Amino acid sequence: MDIGMGKITVDRLARQDAFARFQSTMSRRFPSLLILLLPALVAAAPGDMLWKLDTAVARTVVPGVGFTWSALGHDGSMQLLGGVSVATASSGGGVRIPLDLAPWRGKVLEIDCEVKADSISKPSRSFLGVKVMLHYRSASSGESWKQPRIGYGSFDWTRARVLVPIPPDARDGDLSLGLQAATGRVAFGKVQILAYRDAPAISGRDAGRTTESKTAWRGVMSPGRAMQEKDFADLESWNTNIVRLQLLYNAWTNDRFADTDLVAFDRWLDGRLVEIRRVAELAHDHGIGLVIDLHTPPGGRAPDETNRIFLERRYQQAWFQAWIRIAQTCRGLPGIAAYDLVNEPSQHSPPSEAGVMDLWTAQAEAARLVRSVDSVRPIFVSTEGGSPFAFAFLPRVDVPGVRYTFHMYEPGWYVAQGQNPDDRDTVAYPGVRKSAPFDKAYLRKVLAQAREFQAATGAKIYVGEFSAVRWAPGAARYLADCISLFEESGWDWSYHAFREYQGWDLEMADLPRGSGSRPVPSPEQTDRLRVVRGAMAANQRFPR
Q1: Mutual angle of helices 475-488 and 527-536, in 10-degree steps
Q2: Which of 142, 279, 412, 484 has the most CB atoms lying inside 10 A of its own CB?
Q3: Which segment of 53-67, 322-336, 337-351, 469-483 scores lowest on mean pLDDT?
Q4: Domains of the chain by range and CATH?
Q5: Prediction pTM value
């Protein structure tokens, strides 16, 4: 998880709630919009247009109050024009266009349009305001709302783009254009859906295949601070054999969107390489291996959360060079277990420069560069966002020793409950949520894509992070069931995290609840710690 602790999970839940309200409002206002608009094209190469807003679409859809179609847009295509007053700002307005997503399942789409704004008020949250939003439902991953980050105020025609992976079971798709929780006037033109990436072929055995089917590594995520001798001595007493070592640049400043100074990044990396040597020696002395995790790559993130290493050439090249330097430092060191290329990588918008590799291609290139330096240690390639629901979009990487990684923070409404002071709902595990069982079978469904990917490729999988806040009722049972499912498939794992954020801390008492509470060290082992240590009893020491 990014170093905002549970903040990103909380923000994601807030976005989902707001998006659901807006989509529901559009549905109630326009109940006649039941005709699915079928894609004009089914098979297409990257960059090809699959759908566009034209007169045929406009004839089937009636905009809401205050919005209207313009027969000829500024480029000769259809436009949506309109605005929202103070009286209707809370519910918003616009249009919802149903889409048949079946021909695009398993693909990554690009929503591409132009937006013009006049006096759009500043919304209370970054995901409110001008909406160009594709929504769908998925039985495996739930509902999703994807939209580009668009500004407020007044601006001339501006291009807005967002990438949208469509799950294999996506249904009930719709595209919403309009305003939510903001006032002003807005126009949308050149609205189209493009093919970005086709469904990857994952049949056949992977270059990183393994005959090993048994979990070998059971460990923890490191704290954000420098690890000391006592940390490793205590972890040895737990029988831990792996630590995922976070390399955190500018992590505690809340300036993760502005980490753009490459000179400063290189200076920071110089220090981290010295630190790796120190910590690797400690780990080796205690029979523990380190997974080197470049948790915060150069460039930070763009406002839409996309890693800049997938947008701009200078940051991508800096990331490649950083990994060459890390591998050169680590290849001769004992106590180094593996390399984790990037933490929860995100690509919500396409590269902004020609020749820049996207999330999927760039990870493969980074793996090749690391392998050219270190021919032995495993290299972890991540699903987008570290999500268990993103294996459907993960291509095989033809580099020896590559393994695949994801993080398990599902469902967010359970594992991150109470992070927000306004969140007073208490959800227990196991239990019932919205009349549906919430239990081990539910978790098994969450992990289905990872198991299918493993079965198709024979690849080894590593769960780099998983957790539940200490005050979540049934957290120990949740952790036990997660570990049981991981080990059933022979996956390695590391708990998030060791002596880091108090909400995840296994050594802190379950109560009091909340991210703002004052945690109390437990005088005896918590039930959560007993679960994790109990599983670690099966470990063999990392080779000394």
Answers
A1: 20
A2: 279
A3: 53-67
A4: 9-197 (2.60.120.260), 212-412+445-536 (3.20.20.80)
A5: 0.90
